Amino acid sequence: MVVTVTTQQHTTNPFYNGAKELQEAYMCLYTFNFKKACCNQNDFEFKKLD
């Protein structure tokens, strides 16, 4: 599963603000509740897109 997320600030780590954008994207696209699944940064691979 691949999700492209745009963060509010330029950052190399999308977890800087508790992964708010990731939570919203997964809920919108897959109805997957990020918080209830107890996901953390180690559960994801991310890369910076310039």
Rounded mean pLDDT score: 82
Number of helices: 1
Question: Which structural class matches the secondary elements?
Answer: mainly alpha
Q: Encode the helix/strand succession as letters.
A: H
C-alpha termini separation = 21 Å
Description:
- By secondary structure, the protein is mainly α.
- It has one domain.
- The chain is 22% helix and 0% strand.
Q: What's the topology here?
A:
Blueprint: H1 20-30
Summarize the structure.
The chain has 50 residues and is mainly alpha-helical.
Key terms:
mainly alpha; 1 helix; globular; 50 residues
